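User: I'm putting together notes for a lab meeting next week and I want to include a structural view of one of the chains we've been expressing. I don't have a solved structure, so I'd like a prediction I can at least talk through. The sequence is below, exactly as it appears in our construct file.
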Amino acid sequence: MPKGSFEGLLVPAITPFTAELVPDSERFVGFCRWLLSQGANGLAVFGTTSEANSLSLAQREHLLDAMINGGILASKLMPGTGACALEDAVQMTRMALDAGCGGVLVHPPFYYKPASDDGIVAFYAELIERVGDNRLKIYLYHIPQFTGVPLGRDLIGRLISAYPDTVVGLKDSGGDWTYSETMLREFPGFDVFPASEAFLLQGLRAGACGSITATGNINPAGIRELFDNWQTDRADGLQERVAEIRRIVQAYPLVPAVKVIAAHFLGEPDWRRLCPPLTTLDNEQARTLIDRLSEIQFEFAPAEKASVQTR
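Assistant: Thanks for the context. Below is the predicted structure for the 311-residue chain, given as structure tokens.
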């Protein structure tokens, strides 16, 4: 079974918004470039953390163009192209392929429930056939707490069997290690990315390719250091450090918390802004979050790489 082209830390970059709730492409590209400079192996943009389901196709296309025009290698991008409307998913996937992206992340259609395995398989099959491009590499997106549509072992097995050169991996955002472990055991060579770095070392030892994690936005260097050293005697200590940071952040709604941290350390309050229906942390929550990180001597960036140009 051929593997995809991604490994290590992929960051689902947060999206900055103007006061008019328009994505700020200049600031977005600057932040994405900073993430890569801090050690991110790639960027899984337009997923949950990017607030992609609050963005139109035109807005996502504009941001994708801005990243590539801003010097970000398309091969490092795994944009989310899933949608409830099949044609929207086809359009966004073609857009990513035309740009040269290394793969796409596709959540299942989630509005009509209950969704049968047959229906979900048919959706992915139609997407693949309509795009009709042998360059296509799909990473399935398992996030049932948001979609209400889990991607089970049998469903994934059917897709791999039907499209072994196209369906190459999985982002597991379910938060249950046993699910990732099952996928790694059942499908050797299938690229599994647990979505929390709390499972990164455990995952790498079991055959995972890395992690696609929201907190990569605020701790990219630390998570990359763990990935680079997972086979050394430093691994367990590095794992505990990244897990400690993750525990503090995930005690709050994750996307608002990550944006509060970015806003604080960048000194740019506008980063707190979210697209409705998401709402930011209140002032007390934000203060407590920053205080807890300060107590463990959290650094947003190592001193030698502290410059962050988002404009």
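A couple of points you could mention at the meeting. The longest strand covers residues 167-172. The chain is about 45% helix and 10% strand.

User: Perfect, that's what I needed.
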